[in-house]
Amino acid sequence: MKKLFTPFEKGPLKLKNRLVMAPMTRSRAIGNLPNELMATYYSQRSGAGLIVTEGTAPSPQGLGYPRIPGIYSDEQVKEWKKVTDAVHQNGSKIFLQIMHTGRIAHVANIPGGQLPVGPSNIRAAGEILPTRLVYSNTLFRKLLAWRGLRV
To answer: Hey, which end of the chain has fewer CB within 10 Å, N or C?
Structure first.
């Protein structure tokens, strides 16, 4: 157990400890932009030596579902810098998980009404709701309010 809290080094990667925070989808990136809430979230978890971020879209066609961050515009890069700075302040490292939703995407969640891009033209099982339906749902709004969040 003592080894868990000791520094780790492999090639150019140097971590303050051997704890790694696995990625979790947060869906807090309003307008697909990283924000102060995300910087606070990741900073609060920077006791870990390494944090792997939530899935982040490399292109507009990679968004697919509501409020996931992107990394394809200058503005997004600028906002991610605030997140990484907050984590680095506490001596932790942060890796960006690049994620493309592929064929599970919904056209209503992709900017400009572009069509989803994926590895197959075979429709995925299940469905994803468009942003406007998810966030107009009264029950969903009550749940967010209960957690202290607003749409």
So the answer is: N
- Mean pLDDT, each 10-residue run in order, the chain (151 residues): 92 97 91 95 97 94 86 97 98 95 77 75 69 55 59 53
Left, alpha or beta for 59 (phi > 0: left; psi -120 to 50: alpha)?
beta
* DSSP line for 2-19: GGGGS-EEETTEEESSS-
Of 90, 95, 75, the residue nearest 29 (C-alpha):
75
The dihedral region occupied by 94, where left means phi > 0, alpha psi between -120 and 50, and beta the remainder, is beta
What is the pLDDT, as a whole number, of residue 129? Answer: 62
Give burial (CB, 10 Å; 0-12/13-18/19+) of 149: exposed
- Cβ-proximal residues to 137 (8 Å cutoff; 6+ apart), any chain: none
Half-sphere exposure of 114 (CA within 13 A, CB side): 14
